[in-house]
Amino acid sequence: MVIIGDFLELLRYPLDRIITRRRSLLDRLADMDTIYVPGNHDEDVMRLAGTANPSHPLFARISPAFVQHIGDRRFKFMHGHEVDPLANAHTQNLGRMIGRLAYLCELRQGVCLLSNDTIIGLLEETGEQLLHAWTWLRAGVRAALRGSRSILPGGGMRFLTRRIRTQRMLARYYGDKTEGLYDVAVVGHTHKAGTFGDWYVNSGSWTGASSNFLRISPDGRVGVFNWTDNGPRPNRMVVA
Ligand SMILES: [Mn+2]
Questions:
Q1: 44-87 pLDDT, tens per residue?
Q2: pTM of the model
Q3: Are 144 and 186 members of one domain?
Q4: C-alpha of residue 189 to centroid of ligand 1, in Å
Q5: How far is the CA of 191 from the centre of ligand 1 (A)?
Q6: Alpha carbon distance 76, 45 (integer Å)
């Protein structure tokens, strides 16, 4: 069992309270020799890696992103925010601020008023949209200066939910793959379960409408699944 990050919401909840409340789940995962690779929401647990007496046995199993040979391919197990330029120190701090605010709201009202994930996702997509618009405008202005074509495309400007971000993330993973860092990218982060080609697999999310996971057989074949009331069901989503 490998957890590839954002397992704990540490931008929002104190670690000691999570341990107290979810001890039986943490115990069970520790018993399964789970490897735990932190993501951007729980990167603070990395400081526990290698400590002599971690506050829970599972945290003795914390690992940075790693590459493992399975079958004849090299699989890179990572959360995925590593290649996301918008998951940086600034958005992390912003996330912490929003998280603390949301935590206080919950304490006061007993309800979840703000979803950290939704807000950060929106900000990240907005950032990508702005980058995209800037690039597009710059190219447009250059072209207009050359007098070769109009700035405005025929169809006008389209706003696509998280589309640009997903495309850019894929391009970045592909760059790392072609540089020989790995053959298969095994990631989460975008919450979109599925595959792209034979080199990108996303384990999705356990906080959305369906809970997703990946199963990798010893010969290196990867399956994406949704967990349902009737057990695992194949997920054949192509993520682009
Ligand atoms: Mn993430």
A1: 999 888 788 889 999 999 999 999 999 999 999 999 988 876 67
A2: 0.75
A3: yes
A4: 4
A5: 8
A6: 20
